[in-house]
Amino acid sequence: MPRPDDSEAALEAVGQVLKILGKLSFDVGDEPADSIRKIFERWAQHVLVGAPIGERDREATEAMRRDWPGMRQFVTAHRRREVEHVVKTMTDLRKAVWAFIGAFARAVSDDGQSDASVRTQIGKLEAAIQSNDTAALRREAMAAAELVGAAIERRSERHRVQLGELAGHIQNLSLQLQDAKRAGQMDALTKIHNRACFDEYLTKIAELTALFSQPVCLVMIDIDRFKAINDTCGHGAGDEALKVVADRLVRTFPRRGDLVARLGGDEFVVVLRDIRMEDARSLAQRLVEAVRSVKIENQKKCIPISVSVGIAEWRVGDTKQAWLARADAGLYAAKQAGRDRWAESP
Q1: Helices (DSSP H) in the chain: which residue ranges?
Q2: Alpha carbon 190 to its chain's center
Q3: Fewest 10 Å CB contacts: which of 107, 116, 143, 161?
Q4: C-alpha angle 221/190/224, rounded to 5°?
């Protein structure tokens, strides 16, 4: 049994924690921080001296019965609202920053040139987006906004219109935010990124590549004779083949900056940043060999697996649709040449 002084100390500690949570509260949605602080203060007084939370609680608190379940429900519900608010706000911020980068990339493309200082600052902004440092994100975003504003101001009246389009996005960058990490979009079977995540990522990469002219390659992968595996050995064997290929993809392309995704069915894709075609060829060959070395067991039989791979490097003036089409053409060429190999786009 706890000693009386232990019980009093526990009540004091819980009450002080509630007061601290109230003092450190911030606006959540339409509810201001001051209102939240007052509610926490009432709960703190309820715990410390049995003060009523509301009129209906007066009779219970006069008997010094503290509403512990009610306190837990309040703190849990408030914490959940805080998390949802921070995640939504951070997500909105990241979207605004990417919209800013995309709009500026289009402005640079139209103008045909970019100041070196602006290129450097946008690079810093991209790095800040990927980090968990909101202070760095705010700092680099505002610095980028100032540079972009100055660069566009020096150009023609046509670019003043584009500056107006950016204004709405830039305003969101000054918000005071806590860091939150958005959950990635994953494929349930293979545990790699799914088509929706790839589509969003490809749009961003296309904009950034157009801005910086950095090397980037697209790799399209198809499991050879996948329909025959399903028809002959069943969908369980087909699912196993998909998971095996996804595993080999992750092992072959482990860099954090690359994206490995399943497009659907037996189609996969990899986006390789800062890699030239010669390096992409070596990685494609390594993938073909890695998959070829694996066999899955089904009904005491070993089923061989192979893949066909198409590669396309980003070209100046490319659109993401044209880039995808060239990678797909490379994949078709690999299949036409006999499968279990890679080919690059013509």
Answers
A1: 4-23, 33-49, 58-62, 68-111, 116-130, 134-153, 157-171, 195-212, 226-233, 235-252, 277-292, 320-336
A2: 18
A3: 116
A4: 30
Task: DSSP for 243-284, please give it.
Answer: HHHHHHHHHHS--TTSEEEEEETTEEEEEEET--HHHHHHHH
- If you classify domain 195-344 with CATH, what class do you get? alpha beta
Q: Which of 271, 290, 282 is nearest to 208 (CA)?
A: 271
Among candidate residues 283, 338, 333, 339, the one with its CA nearest the CA of residue 310:
333
- Sheet containing 259-264: which strands, arranged edge to edge? 259-264, 267-273, 216-223, 307-313, 342-344
| Per-domain residue ranges of the chain | 4-66, 85-174, 195-344
Q: Give CA–CA dist 346/331, Å, rounded.
A: 11
* Cβ proximity of 332 and 342 under 8 Å: no
28-75: pLDDT as tens digits: 878 888 999 999 999 989 888 888 886 555 554 444 578 888 899 999
Cα–Cα dist 145/152, whole Å: 11
What single-letter amino acid sits at 333? A
The Cα–Cα gap between 109 and 196 comes to: 26
CB 25 within 8 A of CB 36: yes
If one counts every other C-beta atom within 10 angstroms of the C-beta of residue 13, the result is 11
| Mean pLDDT in consecutive groups of 10 residues from the start of the chain, 346 residues | 69 89 85 90 88 63 72 90 82 73 60 61 74 71 69 56 45 30 69 88 80 86 93 89 95 89 95 93 96 85 92 91 95 96 89
Instruction: Of 250, 204, 239, 219, give the one whose Cα is nearest residue 312.
Output: 219
Q: How far apart are the first and last CA of the chain?
A: 80
Q: Contact, 205 vs 101, CB < 8 A?
A: no
Q: At 24, which amino acid appears?
A: L
Which tokens go with 83?
């998390």
Q: Which of 127, 128, 177, 173 is nearest to 148 (CA)?
A: 173
